[in-house]
Amino acid sequence: MAEEEDMGNGAFQRAPLVFPGRSGGRSLWLVVLLAILGAALCFVVFATGRIAGTRAEYALRDRALAAFPLAADSLKGEIEKQRMIPLVLARDGAVQEMLRSPSTANEAALDEKLRAIARDAGSSILYIINPEGVAVAASNAGEPTSFVGSDYRFRHYFTEAMADGAAMQYALGTVSARPGLYLSSRVDGPEGPLGVVVVKVELDRVESRWLESGFVVFTTDERGVVLATSVPQWRFGALSPLSAKEKQTARDRLQLPGVTFEPVPLSRRGDNLVTATPESRSAGFVAVSQDLGKAVPGWRMSLLIPADTEISSAVMTARVTTLLALVLVGFVIFIIVRRRRAARQRQEVLVLLNAELEHRVELRTAELQSSNAALAGEIAERENAEARVRRLREELAQANRLSILGQITAGVAHEINQPVAAIRTYAENAARLLGIGRSQETAENLTSIVAITGRIGTITETLRSFSRRASGSMGPILADDAIDGALSLLSGRIRDSGVTIERKRIDPSPIVMASRMRLEQILVNLLQNALDALKDQPKPRVEIALAENGEMVAISLRDNGPGLAPDIRRSLFMPFVTNKEKGLGLGLVISQEIARELGGSLRHDDAGHGRGTSFTVELRRAA
What we know:
- It is a multi-pass membrane protein.
- The protein is of the alpha+beta class and 623 residues long.
- It has helices at residues 2-14, 24-89, 93-100, 104-121, 156-164, 204-212, 244-254, 308-342, 347-409, 412-435, 439-467, 479-489, 491-497, 516-533, 566-570, 587-597, and strands spanning 125-129, 135-138, 166-172, 179-189, 192-201, 216-220, 226-229, 266-268, 273-276, 283-291, 300-306, 475-478, 500-504, 511-514, 541-549, 552-559, 601-605, 613-620.
């Protein structure tokens, strides 16, 4: 600006203005006017910078809010993945047997099993505690840091899991002295609690991803004590000073007797801005915070995005641009006034001033074009960053679907066994019919075999389509057609078992929105379970009924078998839970997922012990 003033002064010195008859009062008025204009100019420049800084602050807050779900999901995903391990192991027969009847052979086999699970799942440590609080098996058994034989009665995750069934605690390891999240689940037996399964999750990988993102990310508990964080020196610090009672409560909960919970070097300086010292010097950040909800109860996550450079740049750019624009406007106005007052006396000076003005306009235009080009580059860079974030989200969603596909694929054999059994039945019938010369019926059986082999291909294609985000084709179908198809697939088994099928129809047959093949898959699963339950039962019977309830159509299957035991009913729709000797425990799980994808539901109707078993499929009525 000093250079601009010098340039202007030089131009004016070549042709100084002369105001004939100028008085001292008029000079004073001009000085006052110039002072007012200068004050107004300063105010406008300052206000423009303030507005630009506020906009940059809110833009950074939007970026932080956009990045927050990705940081939170990485933590929630790691915890949810590990949370399932103690829940599943608590129902494992080998774990329950070892806790009931401890033996060296059982402990060695279980140690090896825990070691394999911990290695595959990426868990830090996995161990089992008996009711007395002593670890009896661990994934690090046989190592110098083995947990076997250690007493954990003092740990909250043990006492709370024994009392409530499950628990979660963040604390330092007594052996490793490394922080981690302990997730525990109680092992129940018929006679009562047998012990507790515990997995320790060290969040190093999550914290590393936070650090690589360039943001400052940390979580706090309900007292404001920092737990998981991308700034290790902040761990177990407090966002605000704690009272003596709060410190004692925090030490008891985190079991950190020697920690003083010093305040974290972080202070708020506005609605969105904070000053923090994650490294050697203080800096400004835009901060957003949200509770993590049910995934990690009591935890709150905060994300800080560096703000000083971007806000300062926005303020400086706005002020410089505004100043240049105002100077340019003022200069143009000044020239116009000057030209009007000296048009006749100073024609030569006017030509020079016009040339000088054009030169300055070109310079200002070039500067503005350069600024616009720089802004366009920043916008393109920001759009590329947002595209990368969206791509990462899509890849995370696909990884989640592939994880689900891994579970479903385990049931392929179970699902294909149904049409294979039907093929065998039709083939046996065809052989008998061919032997007695009934060629027409033999051809019909062979045609059915061809159709069922196509069904096997459809089943495998459905699984493959799921991995490509395919949802299957749906349309209006007659509910009775799907029931007929399922009964046809199992006709040979029904006839051989001697089970009576009773159908309660509705005239006309209701039309539902579904995929016929997938609806038949549900019905075949339910019918096969009913046939298994009716084996060796007197007067076996299966009742299939249709009912309409507003916009929904219900298909109910009820048998008069022995019913389900209470422990089976509680875990009926859990994977790999079955009371069949050769069952996989996936039929009902897959059927329930198919019903949900069709926009309906599958439920078990509890009729009481000893009164048979009833399942109901509800689907939306077709328009």
